[in-house]
Amino acid sequence: MARKLGQISTGAPLQRPKPGSGESKARPDKHFLPTWIRRRMMRHARVYDAYLYWTQVRRLLYFVGTGRNFFKSPETSLNIYQTKGDYEHQDYMNGSVQAVLNGQIHRMSHREARERYCAYLFEEIDRILPATGKLRILEVGCGNCINLVLLKQRYGDRIELTGHDISERRIAVAKEFFGDKLDGIIFAVKSATDSVPAEEESQFDFVFSMHCLEQIPFGVLPAVQGMYKRTRSRVVMIEPVFDFARPTQKLFLIYSDYTRTLLPTVRYLGYKILRAEPLSIESSLKNQSSIIVVEK
């Protein structure tokens, strides 16, 4: 099979019926085959991927046919996250997901899936972690702060952690849920697309994002530039990369209006790419996941 597909679409489409069309069509169900058939199909990843492809075709045709807006604005993700509670943390602690691992579909816990994602992050940190002194690390779009908790657990006082997120509420919810597990971490409410003050340039040794830039198709260039300006050494982006996606994944990225120009943008900016490849883990069967490592 290959790369990763879908998290829940964060766009909140607005109803725009075509003139004279009367009532809009009912939104298609996510699945059009019964569960027992889909479970059998999951034994064969390529077959199930073909089925998922047609679910995405139906969803895209629905949006087009009803004239619904599925394009994000700069405020889309902020408005959604400002209304959310600790559902991501509960999923992480107790939930499970159908994931793809090395081309095969598996049921695994959200905790295991996240640990497999972070293994890529740890690998890149270990490459530049000094024998003495602290590594200064920034997560752009820290959101639920799960990554920061795992980093602190692994590296302890060998690193200094900072998290930026556009949603003050997301940070507050994470602090309430994790308590002292986030002690010592510096937080700031900032958008990934904000301009970088002079005093923040080259402030960190390692800057990363994980499924954050996917949410800002309107601002991927300033976001990548901002991450690059803030680092002294490495930028790591664990995000969907349209160029590596299968047809099913491309359809999902289109109708979810996720970033589709990340890799071309990095190349356009002329940054030195050390690594650009799909992950072996996909915590959802539709949304592609890759790693891009940039050296400064």
CATH architecture tag: 3-Layer(aba) Sandwich
Annotation field: number of helices: 10
The portion of residues forming beta strands comes to: 15-25%
Structural class: alpha/beta
Describe this structure in words.
The protein has a single domain (1-296), classed as Vaccinia Virus protein VP39 (Rossmann fold, 3-Layer(aba) Sandwich), CATH 3.40.50.150. The two termini are 33 Å apart. It is of the alpha/beta class and 296 residues long. It has ten helices and ten strands. Helix content is 37%, strand content 20%. The chain has helices spanning 35-41, 45-66, 76-81, 87-94, 110-128, 146-155, 168-178, 220-230, 247-255, 262-268, and strands at residues 96-101, 104-109, 135-140, 159-165, 186-189, 204-210, 231-239, 272-278, 281-282, 290-295. The strands form two sheets. It has a seven-stranded mixed sheet, sandwiched between helices.
What structural keywords apply?
296 residues, alpha/beta, Rossmann fold, seven-stranded mixed beta sheet, three-stranded antiparallel beta sheet, 10 strands, 37% helix, globular, disordered N terminus
Brief characterization of the structure:
The chain has 296 residues and is of the alpha/beta class.
Secondary structure: elements and pairs:
Blueprint: H1 35-41, H2 45-66, H3 76-81, H4 87-94, E1 96-101, E2 104-109, H5 110-128, E3 135-140, H6 146-155, E4 159-165, H7 168-178, E5 186-189, E6 204-210, H8 220-230, E7 231-239, H9 247-255, H10 262-268, E8 272-278, E9 281-282, E10 290-295
Parallel strand pairs: 3-4, 3-6, 4-5, 6-7
Antiparallel strand pairs: 1-2, 1-9, 7-10, 8-10
